[in-house]
Amino acid sequence: MTCPLCTADAPLIAVAVTGGAAEASIDICAPCGDLQTPADHFRPLASTMWSEDPAVQVYAARTLKRLDTDWATDLAEQLYLDDETRAWADNVPQESNHKDSNGQPLAAGDTVVLIKDLPVKGGGFTAKRGTAVHRISLVADNPAHIEGRVEGQRIVILTEFVKKR
C-alpha cells in the first residue's frame, strides 16, 4: 500500500489523528509515524499535503510544523485549510492522563508490553503476557484505555495491564 504522506510503497500502520471534533485514523508508513525520522523523508508533503482527506491534511500540517527546516516552514505557510480543519490541526493534544501499571505516563506512539494474558473479545485469541504493542493510540475520552495492534487486530487495552517499554 502507498503511504498518503510520503508516497512510499510500504506496510502501513494505523495512527490516530486526535485533538479535534472529527477524530480520525490514517494509515501511514512506519517512518512517517516516527518522530525521529529525518526531515528529508517528508519532502513529498509538498504535493501530498493537498489531500482531500482532512485527517491527512491535519497530520501533514502538524508534521510540517514540527520539522525545523526552511522548506517545511514554507510549505506550512502555503497550506490552506478550512477553518474547522485548521482548528483541528492547531489543537494538538497535550499531556494525557494515560498511565501504565507502574504510573508512567503514556503517549501516542509509545511501545508497551502486556503484563497479563488478555482474552480478546470478538477476536478469538488471547493476547499473551510479554507481547509488545508498538505505536499505541490513546483513547481521548478514557484515560484507562489505549488502542494497539496485536496479532494484526486493532484492540482496546486497559492501561492497568501494560507497562511502558
Q: Radius of gyration, Cα only, in angstroms?
A: 17 Å
Low-confidence stretches: none
Intertermini distance: 29 Å
Q: What's the total helix number?
A: 5
User: What is the percentage of strand-forming residues?
Assistant: 15-25%
SSE series: EEHHHHHEEEEEEEE
Helix/strand/pairing category: alpha+beta
Mean pLDDT over the residues: 90
Q: State the strand order across the main sheet.
A: 6-3-10
Q: Helicity, in percent?
A: 10-25%
Whole-number tally of structural domains: 2
Shape estimate: elongated
Q: Mind summarizing the main beta sheet?
A: 3 strands, antiparallel
Beta-strand segment tally: 10
Description:
This protein is α+β, with helices and mostly antiparallel strands and 165 residues long. The protein folds into two domains: 12-90, no CATH class; 112-164, SH3 type barrels (Roll). It has helices spanning 30-33, 45-48, 54-66, 70-78, 83-90; strands spanning 12-17, 24-29, 112-114, 118-120, 125-127, 132-133, 137-138, 145-150, 153-158, 162-164. Strands 6-3-10 form a three-stranded antiparallel beta sheet, with no helix packed on it. The protein has a three-stranded antiparallel beta sheet with strand order 7-8-9, with no helix packed on it. A two-stranded antiparallel sheet has the order 1-2. It is elongated and about 50 Å long. It starts with 11 loop residues before the first strand and ends with a strand. The mean pLDDT is 90.
